[in-house]
Amino acid sequence: MKNVTDSFVSLGYWTFAGSFGFNTDILATNPINLTVVLGVLIFFGKGVLNDLLDNRKQKILNTIRNSEELREGAIEQLEKARARLRKVEMEADEFRVNGYSEIEREKLNLINSTYKTLEQLENYKNETIHFEQQSAINEVRQQVFQQALEGALGTLTSCLNNELHLRTISANIGMFGAMKEIID
């Protein structure tokens, strides 16, 4: 503290006209320099500082207004998106319900179609079996008839002699002739 008071007391001992020099006593010169600089800054910088602060204030207010507008726009878009989401969810539920009923319908149609196909296959199988049975029966009949005919021919050829054979032919020719006369 003594140095500070000494520096103010020593002001009276400075020479005013004779010499120029730097005062290297920091404690003595700093408060004076700071006071002068602050006074000049306040006097000349007051308008510039007010303008800077007003500009900054306007920028902040504009930014707040813009962010409020953006916020309101975002809220509107959010509401629209939520409405679209609800609509899409309802459509998805509808598709899901319709899809399940469509699947059930297709399942029933497939079961019915399969049942009809199996029924047709069963009918074709039965018809094929019946046809094969008829073919087998006809083949057996033909074989039995062929064997009976061969047996009868064998019996006739062994029993018939030429004279009996000629008489049978004559009798048959006579019957055909009589039938022809009846028809005419």
What does this structure look like?
The chain is an all-alpha fold and 184 residues long. It has a domain at 30-136. The protein contains three helices and no strands. The protein starts with a helix and ends with a helix. The relative contact order is 0.02.
Order of helices and strands: HHH
Estimated helix fraction: over 70%
Q: Which whole number gives the mean pLDDT? A: 82
CA-to-CA gap between the ends?
A: 178 Å
General shape: rod-shaped
The major sheet is characterized as: none
Helix and strand content put the structural class at mainly alpha
Number of strands: 0
Tally of separate helices: 3
Alpha-carbon Rg, integer: 67 Å
Low-confidence stretches: none
Kindly estimate the percentage of residues that lie in beta strands according to DSSP.
under 5%
Topology of helices and strands:
Elements: H1 2-9, H2 26-159, H3 162-183
List descriptors.
184 residues, mainly alpha
